From TrEMBL:
Assigned keywords, A-Z: Methyltransferase, Transferase
Methyltransferase type domain span: 62-157
InterPro entries named in the record: Methyltransf_12 (IPR013217), SAM-dependent_MTases_sf (IPR029063)
Alphabetized GO MF terms: methyltransferase activity
Signal peptide: none
Classification of source organism: Bacteria, Bacillati, Actinomycetota, Actinomycetes, Micrococcales
Annotated protein name in UniProt: SAM-dependent methyltransferase
Gene Ontology BP terms: methylation
Amino acid sequence: MSTSDYLAANQANWDDRAPLHAARDGSGYGVARYLNDPAALSDVVTFDLPLLGDIAGLTAVHLQCHIGTDTISLARLGATVTGLDFSRESIAEARKLASEAGDAVEFVESDVHLALDALPPEAFDLVYTGIGALCWLPRVQDWAKVVAGLLAPGGTLHLREAHPILWAMDESVTTDLALRYPYFEHVEPLEWDDAETYVDTPTALTATKTYEWNHSLGEIVTALLETGLRVEALVEHQSVPWEALPGQMTLGDDGEWRLTDRAGVVPLSYTLRAVKPA
């Protein structure tokens, strides 16, 4: 298979996930809370707040935005936000949710690699990339170039991602931490075939095959530095917002999962902030 075949399979999978994640019955992402409470923020953006800082008045783009819950949350913090995603169904659900909730957010359907064709260059004070995004991209250098191209001089990238050491672990081992998969970027992706998604849904997926790539922390930092961005912060966290290692994690009141017995042994996610020099 070619890279385009891998990405097409991933797109079909996310098209399949979108209506399940956007269900109004309490399953999926539980999106009813955004409709019932105009001040509600996603758990992900709430976790980001201390490092994200005040974004009121900023022009922001959320890359790989899925159904837009984090995108809407950024808008509720006062930013003018555009969400971008390659999944047509995700964008449709995001637009529907924002319209029903009364939030002024623009959504654009585009592969993140083509974002500079779909959006104006150097137009954004903030590029936001949420958790679970980079693993779907074959080459982190290509993503870094897009980020640098979208940022206005003086603009900031805010990235929170699952740690590459977590992506390298075998989640089927439920009694201990076990490294199995590549930590470094690899040409051929890991292939998965799974009818379930990472949140509770009433029905199974039909487009079940997905393809993922890991990127080491050093590769991510280096790719951003090579575009001319200046890394200002890199913070590793002991939590992640889904049960990444079933049977070994405990859910906190903040919506974050932490290791139950091996806390502090490995990082589970990280936040990176980088600035484009003025």
